[in-house]
Every structure is written in structure tokens, then in C-alpha cells.
Specification:
- The complex is a heterodimer of chains A (182) and B (87).
- Chain A has 182 residues and is mainly β.
- Chain A has helices at residues 44-47, 100-109; strands at residues 22-27, 31-33, 55-56, 63-66, 73-79, 86-96, 113-119, 125-128, 135-140, 154-163, 173-174.
- In chain A, strands 1, 4, 5, 6, 7, 8, 9 and 10 form an 8-stranded antiparallel beta sheet that branches. A two-stranded antiparallel sheet of chain A has the order 2-3.
- In chain A, a hairpin with a 6-residue loop joins strand 5 and strand 6 (86-96).
- Chain A starts with 21 loop residues before the first strand and ends in an 8-residue tail after the last strand.
- With 87 residues, chain B is of the alpha+beta class.
- Chain B has one domain (3-75).
- Chain B is built from 3 helices and 4 strands.
- Chain B has helices at 3-6, 34-42, 52-58; strands at residues 7-9, 16-19, 23-26, 48-50.
- Chain B has a two-stranded antiparallel ribbon. Chain B has a two-stranded antiparallel sheet with strand order 2-3.
- The chains are: A mainly beta (182), B alpha+beta (87).
- Chains A and B meet through strand 11 of A and strand 2 of B.
């Protein structure tokens, strides 16, 4: 793999912060095949891109969750000791309201192995989860009814995923159930 | 002609798929633009396969397509069109 000069690299000058107002979630065990590490990346671009598609098991699909604008972010933290460094994604979202469907989602995911996909404002996707490691519900912040009438009801959620490498995900996200290939 | 004349949706039920290139598309909608579906197919989108009519109309002089095979412009042939004769 060859190094390369790295310039400003803002495509069309675009660099708006924040995330898209939809994140995608599913059960880690419902994934049939995962994108993989680039096999023999020859460029830095290739080294930053996962290879392949997220494919779900028969009858399974990914789902969509609305998140409030300017209330979601994806943090990327470096973890590990010297010689053992990796990364941790922390996906923070805020789902407005306390609808029973949201409460049910919190109940179902609090101890579950998950797969999540977030999209940033530049249109880039990030996959939280891989064949050997799931994303997990980690914490809840700013959740509840709020204390003032100019506050808001809702659920703040943080999901964590640890990985050895950072990749963009360039595949598709099936929001419809997989069927057997004839 | 609609896109389902040229392509079959495979491996999933008709419904929404978020595509890297065009965002969320509802593959249960027969009115999706053929050129958009074709572009996905040529990108290697895993949920499309050519129908015999699709091969004849969109890639008439090409070998059987492998999804993801990049088509060079000189290989593309326009679909056959019927010219109306003047009375």
C-alpha cells in the first residue's frame, strides 16, 4: 500500500456537520454476509473503504429510525494501549417523543447485539458492526419528558462499536426482506 | 417499457432499498427510471439481474452481463425504436 499526499479533499467544498435524519438498524444475528476489510489495498482510498454488501438472512431486513436534526452525531475515538490501538464509534441519536414504539425499541435493544448504519451530511455511510463484533446500546442521555414546557420529550441513545479500522460503507441497505435465490 | 421489463429484482421482496448512488428507492414502484436502474446494475448492485429482453434491448451486442461489469460507452447500443411512417 502506497502513501499519498492528502490535500483538502472537500468534494465541491461540502463539509456540513451532523448526520442525516435517518439511521438504519437491525439485529446482528440477522446478517447473512458482511462487508469485509479491503483485501490488498494499494491506496489510502482503498484502505478506507469496506468491501462488499451487507446482506440479510432470509426473511430479515434492516429498519429505519428517525432522529432529530442537529441531535445526532457519530464520534470516532481512538482506544487501546500502545501497539494495540483501534477505534470506537459512538453513535448518538435523539428520537423525539416517547411513543410506545420507541420505548419498545429501547427495551428490545438494551442488551441486544445490533448492526447500525449512519449517514453523515456529506452522504457517506458508516457501518457499526462486523462479522465478529456487534454494535451495542451503551447509554441513554437527555431521555425523558424534559422539565420545562420549552423542553422536549424524547429518547437520547448512544450505541458503541469497536473496530480495528475505520471504513466508509459503500453498499446498499435493504429495507425489504431477503428471499431465497431461486 | 418499464424497468421490470429489462431487470428482475432478486434476493429481496419488492420494497425499499437505500442505494449508495441514488438514495432510497422503492423497487415495488414500476415507474422507476430505466436509466437509473441500469446505472445501478452497472455499478454491481446485488439485487438486479437482466431479463432476456433487457439484454436484447440494452446490451444487444455484448456478452452475457456479469453484474458490476463496467460498460464502455462504445459498447452501448440504443434500444430499438419504431419509426412511424407518414401517411
Amino acid at each position: 500500500m502506497d502513501f499519498a499526499d492528502i490535500g483538502k479533499l472537500l468534494v465541491d467544498g461540502k463539509n456540513l456537520g451532523g448526520l442525516a435524519q435517518r439511521i438504519y438498524f437491525g439485529l446482528w444475528n440477522d446478517v447473512q454476509t458482511w462487508p469485509v476489510d479491503p483485501a490488498t489495498p494499494l491506496t489510502l482510498d482503498a484502505l478506507g473503504t469496506a468491501t462488499g454488501e451487507l446482506v440479510m438472512k432470509e426473511g430479515k431486513r434492516m429498519f429505519e429510525l428517525y432522529t432529530t436534526e442537529d441531535a445526532a452525531k457519530l464520534d470516532i475515538n481512538v482506544i487501546g494501549e500502545e501497539g494495540g490501538k483501534g477505534y470506537e464509534y459512538l453513535l448518538h441519536i435523539f428520537a423525539p417523543g416517547l411513543h410506545k414504539k420507541l420505548l419498545g425499541f429501547m427495551n428490545a435493544t438494551k442488551n441486544e447485539d445490533l448492526v447500525l448504519i449512519a449517514q453523515d451530511s456529506a452522504g457517506q455511510f458508516y457501518l457499526l458492526g462486523c462479522e465478529i463484533r456487534s454494535a451495542k446500546f451503551q447509554a441513554s442521555d437527555a431521555s425523558g419528558t424534559g422539565s420545562t414546557t420549552d423542553g422536549r420529550r424524547g429518547l437520547g441513545m448512544t450505541f458503541a462499536y469497536r473496530t480495528h479500522s475505520l471504513y466508509t460503507y459503500t453498499g446498499s441497505i435493504p429495507l425489504t426482506a431477503a428471499v431465497p435465490t431461486p | 417499457m418499464i424497468w421490470t421489463d429489462y431487470f428482475n429484482l432478486i434476493k429481496v421482496l419488492p420494497g425499499r432499498i437505500v442505494t449508495p448512488r441514488f438514495g432510497s428507492l422503492d423497487f415495488g414502484d414500476p415507474s422507476l427510471p430505466v436509466e437509473k436502474i441500469r446505472a445501478l446494475f452497472e455499478d454491481g448492485f446485488p439485487y438486479l439481474e437482466l431479463t432476456p429482453l433487457g439484454k436484447e434491448a440494452l446490451y444487444p451486442l455484448s456478452e452475457p452481463m456479469d453484474p458490476g461489469q463496467r460498460i464502455e460507452p462504445e459498447q452501448l447500443k440504443p434500444a430499438k425504436t419504431t419509426l412511424k411512417r407518414k401517411a
